[in-house]
Design a protein that fits this description.
The chain is mainly α. A two-stranded antiparallel ribbon has the order 1-2. The radius of gyration is 18 Å and the shape is globular. Helix 2 crosses helix 4, helix 7 packs antiparallel against helix 11 and helix 8 packs antiparallel against helix 9. Strand 1 and strand 2 form a beta hairpin. It has 12 helices and 2 strands. The chain starts with a helix and ends with a helix. The relative contact order is 0.14.
Length: 235
């Protein structure tokens, strides 16, 4: 399959967020007339950028599922539940329905290689963004805040690989990490000692990227993800 066909199938971050909000509408989390959380809250919930979130809200508005009022927020329309999409087998739907074990397996296949690419392609701005994410994560006062900046660091590494298709797919994966099943796993698994290990591993990954050492960046990120998988899933 060529790159263009694969891109047609790939779930963009915006598509993933649209699907997740649609899922919330369908299951009654946000019923007709309900105000959606603020943009800032949705950004944190789905671990996406403001630009990606606004694309998602624009799509939902064009579909008639929400109405947006400047200064008031976004509200679910009465027609939204009638327009809920039927189940399909698109990549977006498959990623949303994937188990934590499947997501971790996919991350292990993708992220270490992306780090190797990033070592040769990251700009000064990319590296600065990674340092910002590290600093915010290390200052985080609770698990959700730490996990948000942890996720943003991984997004920054993927972005530094300069592969748009990879970034689209990873944005969809990253949005899933804030779903309830993931949240429960993370709260149970993230002890202070484990957080300290993750922070050290993050520092070593970014250090390798700054040194332009692709082999070390790949190995460090693989070691980190294997540790995360063990802590989350016990295997």
């Amino acid at each position: 399959m060529d790159a263009l066909n694969l891109r047609d199938r790939a779930a963009s971050g915006a598509s993933a967020v649209v699907a997740l909000i649609e899922q919330g509408i369908a299951d009654g989390t946000w019923g007709p007339g309900t105000k959606l959380p603020t943009e800032r809250e949705l950004e944190k919930r789905f671990n996406v950028s403001r630009n990606t979130l606004r694309k998602s809200l624009r799509v939902l508005e064009e579909q008639g599922k929400i109405v947006r009022h400047v200064g008031r927020g976004s509200f679910v329309t009465s027609e939204a539940t009638a327009k809920a999409p039927a189940e399909d087998q698109s990549l977006t739907s498959r990623i949303i329905g994937a188990s934590p074990a499947e997501i971790m397996e996919l991350r292990l296949m993708v992220e270490p290689q992306a780090a190797e690419l990033a070592a040769g392609r990251a700009t000064a701005a990319d590296l600065h963004r990674m340092e910002e994410c590290l600093a915010h994560a290390e200052r985080a006062q609770d698990v959700p805040e730490f996990e948000h900046w942890d996720g943003m660091l991984h997004v920054a590494i993927i972005g530094a690989a300069k592969n748009g298709l990879l970034a689209d797919v990873y944005d969809a994966i990253n949005a899933i990490r804030n779903q309830p099943e993931w949240a429960r796993l993370k709260v149970r698994s993230l002890t202070p000692a484990r957080r300290a290990v993750y922070e050290d591993q993050h520092r070593r990954i970014v250090s390798a990227l700054k040194d332009r050492d692709g082999d070390q960046a790949r190995a460090a990120l693989q070691e980190h993800l294997l540790q995360v998988r063990t802590n989350l899933l016990g295997s």
